[in-house]
Design a protein that fits this description.
five-stranded antiparallel β-sheet, 37% helix, alpha+beta, globular, 10 strands, 6 helices
Length: 218
């Protein structure tokens, strides 16, 4: 399929990874059509189908998605991503799925070291009237921890498309519990300025990639 046919079949391209470090440096794209996510590459190398399945499975594990039955490269979310729910962090999720080869620890807490203080940041889920609300907290020293919590909440809204409940609480738009996707967003949300710089650099590289159709053909 050419790029136009791919877009017609699989929808909008949410993110491109220019080189897969674990499979012949092929380019991998994540597409969204309706509620269906598709991992795709133009590469015709032997084993590419199996590699796309690996990436899809890592999206399921690290993003709390679920695989589409009888498909090797597609997934979705229980909320069907209505009104853009769960779509904002997908660019970070694809990067994690492709660029790393680590295992997912379902028992680990949602936590990360704060870059602006000595605190360890935590995100804790709770059920409120059938809705999952996540609370930002921290352990360790910080001059004004409440300012850091507020900044992290703003980061979740900006990069995770989350709903701000108050200065220390957020939720997904669907109000479902998804600790996996929150683990993806927290390291991004903790430092908005650094994330902006990284994304600007990636966007510049992405523009160069899309000028050559966005994918490696071999």
């Amino acid at each position: 399929m050419n790029p136009q046919e791919v877009i017609k079949k699989y929808g909008t391209c949410l993110e491109l990874i220019s080189m897969d470090p674990f499979f012949h440096e092929i380019t991998v794209g994540l597409f969204l059509k309706g509620s269906i996510l598709t991992v795709h590459s133009y590469s015709n190398k032997d084993g590419v189908k199996e590699r796309l399945t690996q990436i899809r499975d890592r999206i399921v594990l690290f993003g709390g998605a679920k695989p589409i039955e009888n498909s090797y490269n597609q997934a979705t979310y229980d909320c069907e991503m209505k009104n853009g729910c769960c779509t904002s962090p997908l660019r970070f999720l694809l990067k994690r799925a492709v660029m790393k080869n680590d295992d997912y620890d379902s028992e680990s807490k949602i936590t990360v070291k704060d870059l602006r203080s000595e605190m360890q940041l935590y995100l804790t889920p709770k059920n409120v009237d059938g809705k999952t609300i996540y609370t930002v907290s921290g352990e360790g020293e910080a001059k004004k921890p409440e300012i850091r919590y507020r900044a992290v909440v703003n980061g979740f809204v900006r990069y995770g498309g989350c709903v701000k409940i108050n200065h220390t609480e957020i939720s997904l738009q669907c109000f479902r519990r998804n600790d996996a996707i929150m683990k993806i967003i927290l390291p991004i949300a903790r430092n908005i300025s650094a994330t902006e710089d990284i994304l600007a650099a990636e966007d510049m590289a992405g523009q160069m990639t899309t000028q050559t159709l966005g994918f490696s053909s071999t």
